[in-house]
Amino acid sequence: MSQKPRRNPQQDTEKPHRPSQGTEKSRRGARSHQITFESRTRAWRRHHGQMAVDSLYRLRRRPLSTLMTMLAIAIAMVLPASLWLALGSAQLLDSNLDDTARMTLYLDPALSESQAMDITDQVRGESDIASTELITAAAGLESFQQRLGMSDALAMMEDNPLPATILVQPRSRDPDAAQALAERLGQIEGVTDARLDMAWLERLRQLSELGRRVVLAFGVLFALGVLLVVGNTIRLAVESRRQEIEVVTLIGATHAFVRRPFLYVGVWYGLGGGILALLLLTLGRRWLSAPIDMLASGFGSHFSLPGIGLGGSALLLICSTMLGLVGAWLAVSRHLAEISPR
Amino acid sequence: MAMIEFAHVGKRYGGRFEALADLNFNVERGEMVFLTGHSGAGKSSVLRLLMALERPSRGRIAVAGHDITNLHVSHIPFYRRQIGVVYQNHQLLFDRSVFDNVALPLVIQGATPQDARRRVHAALDKIGLLHRERALPIELSGGEQQRVGIARAVVTKPAMLLADEPTGNLDPQLSADIMRLFEDFNRIGTTVLLASHDLALIARLRHRVLKLRDGRLIGDEEAA
Fold first, then answer.
1. Measured between CB atoms, which of A6, A42, A254 is closest to B77?
2. Do A249 and B77 touch (CB under 8 A)?
3. What residue numbers bound the domain in which A226 lies?
4. B162 touches chain A (CB under 8 A)
5. Which residue intervals define the domain ABC transporter in the entry (chain B) (predicted)?
């Protein structure tokens, strides 16, 4: 056995970029070495890279249990995601329901076209009006014919039974204000009726609010499910590496260092689960699209199921990855708290 | 300046059992000191307090002039990096090679791979196991495993080396070899505090001996 004391490596010349170590010249014997900020950052990045790869290898070593965990995450992600898509396709989540307070003014059928224009100008002069659109009796009839294909029946009538109408878009979105405006506009001479068609829109809005809440509730529940799945799996991983955690903690590993490999495992679980969820969504859409196309064509519509899209996919992956990360964090932190000194 | 200072240190477990009572002693920088006593006398408690695995219930502990009595949790890892610890069961990780085990403290401290390799090789050379760096700990004998544990403790060149019954499982010849290693490190300036109940071995080595009984210091014999 060599009795020669080891040379202090801080004296080595091959590291000229660590000037701070020069001052630490060999005091004889034990002396903890200094590490610069720059090299510490590099070491930090290196450890991240190592742990990212190492945790992947650990997952690959147990393909079946890894796949099952990811599948559990995927299923928990698919349910709220598909509900979201279904609501989106019904456009209930669309916020374009802004014309809630749009109203229609029905004009006296006896009025001439120029009189109708005058009234339109008068309405436009009122306060709180965003826009107006005059639909003359003739234009109304034409669009009516086009839409219903009933030109023959209507052509048999001598007079145009439709009155001229003015579509009014109020500036305010407040239903009460719109109601007041409708009453005010109904007083204008030549206007026989001012109708605010908001009852069904109001119901639709309530329905969409309900849908939104259901999606949110399911989302939160299933997110909790993902946290539990990941947390439980990581807890087992922590358990199986308990001795390793103990040893590295004893020789000066920070909590972040101990946590890192497990966080990466959580991230991979989350990401894998997210990718599987996207796969399931795509498969499900393909499976449902044939009957839906047939159904839609029966109604003369070109409706088709909306896909999740690029943005949606990214959002889903980010969510699942974050859930994996948080689940792992919670599981490891609980263990670390247990081994802190008392 | 003293390396280790214990001032009126007491440690109670669960509010009743008193493991240490009013313990006072200093260990100077560069000293090699044995800590003896029957099992349950408080040797392990002293070491656990020094490793910041536990906090004292009373009194004050300072290491290299720094009060570690109420060390903040976030500072504990950095404190532990300043000390090397050798365990009776050597606490090696059996899923990685001798090299990786010894390199672990350097990885934790963020040494570059080149720097780590040089230091690990130096440490393994010192304990005479450089040729086994690729081996798994399970392939080594008990004495060799303990030497790997020592290499891991000294690879960062700590100012203080703690050892808890490092020869507990070894035969006399191997124990003597291990002790010689500790003496070598002490000779180059490392403070060594070594808990052992192997009185015959201790008597032969002629170092200062702190004797504990029921958590109290009952003897402090200077090196003969």
1. A254
2. yes
3. 50-96+203-294+303-339
4. no
5. 4-223
If contacts are CB pairs under 8 Å, which of residues 284-313 in chain A contact chain B? none
Residue A30 lies in a domain: no
Report the Cα–Cα distance between both ends of chain A, in Å, rounded. Answer: 41
Q: How far apart are alpha carbons A259 and A333 in whole angstroms?
A: 8
Q: Are residues A131 and A188 in the same domain?
A: yes
Q: Which of A164, A330, A167 is nearest to A263 (CA)?
A: A330
B77/A252 touch (CB, cutoff 8 Å), yes or no: yes
A164 and A233 housed in the same domain: no
pLDDT of the residue at A32: 45
Q: Are residues A179 and A150 in the same domain?
A: yes
Whether the complex's predicted ipTM is more than 0.85 is answered with yes
Q: Identify whether A72 is part of a domain.
A: yes
Return the higher-pLDDT residue of A179 and A270.
A270
Q: Check residue B148 and give its pLDDT.
A: 94
Pick the CATH number of B1-82+199-224 from 3.40.50.300, 3.40.50.2300, 3.30.70.260, 3.30.470.20: 3.40.50.300
pLDDT tens for each residue of A282-331 = 999 888 888 888 877 776 666 667 778 888 899 999 999 999 999 999 99
Residue with tokens 């009373």: B58
pLDDT in tens, B143-187: 899 999 999 999 999 999 999 988 887 888 888 888 999 999 999
Residues of A in contact with B155 (CB under 8 A): none
Mean pLDDT of B37-47: 88
Q: Could you tell me the CA-to-CA distances from A283 to A263, A274, A279, A294, B170 in Å, in that order? A: 30, 14, 6, 18, 64
Residues in A touching B161 (Cβ below 8 Å): 30
DSSP label at residue B168: T
Q: Does B89 touch chain A (CB under 8 A)?
A: no
C-alpha to C-alpha distance for B174 and A317, rounded to whole angstroms:
57
Q: Does A95 touch chain B (CB under 8 A)?
A: no
Contacts with A251 from chain B: Cβ below 8 Å: 80-81, 85, 104-105, 108, 152
Nearest to B159 among A2, A32, A42 (CB): A32
Residue of B nearest to A10 (CA): B115
8 Å CB contact of A9 and B118: yes
Residue A149 has pLDDT above 80, yes or no: no
**Structure confidence by residue, pLDDT tens digits, A276-293:** 999 999 999 888 888 888
Which residues are within 8 A (CB) of A327 and not within 5 positions of it... i.e. 6 or more apart?
A226, A227, A228, A229, A230, A231, A234, A266, A269, A270
Over residues B199-220, the pLDDT tens digits come to 888 888 889 999 999 888 888 8
Are residues A209 and A257 part of one domain?
yes
**Among A197, A213, A239, residue at a domain's last position:** A197
pTM of the model: 0.70
Domains contained in chain A, number: 2
Average of per-residue pLDDT across B131-141: 93
Whether chain A has a CB inside 8 Å of the CB on B119: the answer is yes
d(CA A144, CA A128): 30
Predicted pLDDT at A300: 62
Range 18-57 of B in CB contact (< 8 A) with A:
30, 51-55
CATH number of the domain that A189 lies in? 3.30.70.3040
Q: Do A318 and A221 have their domain in common? A: yes
pLDDT for res B110:
86
My answer on whether A215 and A327 are in the same domain is yes
If DSSP codes are grouped into helix, strand and coil, which group holds residue A212? helix
10 Å CB burial of residue A155 (0-12, 13-18, 19+) is exposed
Assess whether pLDDT exceeds 80 at residue A36. no
